[in-house]
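[audit] Reproducing an earlier prediction to check determinism. Same input, same settings, fresh worker. If the tokens differ from the archived copy the diff job will pick it up downstream; this log only records the rerun itself.
[audit] input (163 residues):
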Amino acid sequence: MKHYLLALALAAVIPSAAVADKQGMPAKAASKDIIDTALSDPQFSTLVEAIKTAGLVDTLKGKGPFTVFAPTNEAFAKIPPEQLKALLADKKKLTAVLTYHVVPGKVMAADVMKMKTVKTAEGSTAKVEAGKDGVRVDGAKVIAPDVQASNGVIHVIDTVMMP
């Protein structure tokens, strides 16, 4: 019951391509892939810059499906500027950090809430915690789940996760 209520609470604050339009008709499926969805939202400009720097654009524009735990610009701002600059300059480490935010397959919020861990594309396992204050993945709070993309789903998070 508590998971159901949490899913309802999360769904109430999420922009989703799967909701009905004003006439009650189902909305069209998402037409933008993960990269184009991120590009269309200014809160992801640092993430997009990092993805470009790591050379992961083509991968995340691929068929997928992918689940991306996407840190906002505010999440990246929590990293001290000199550390962020060093991370962006180290392609190998940056790639590891970014692929730690990707889970192969399309994992919706309702599914994430039932999990204890998720296996990331980087190869590590991230811990999942669902509670009355929401869902956290490796300590990062999901602030907007189930943002639909044509090749997967984005869950917006408030902290950059480190493998």
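[audit] rerun output stored. Observation attached for the diff report: Residues 1-28 have pLDDT under 50 and may be disordered.
[audit] end
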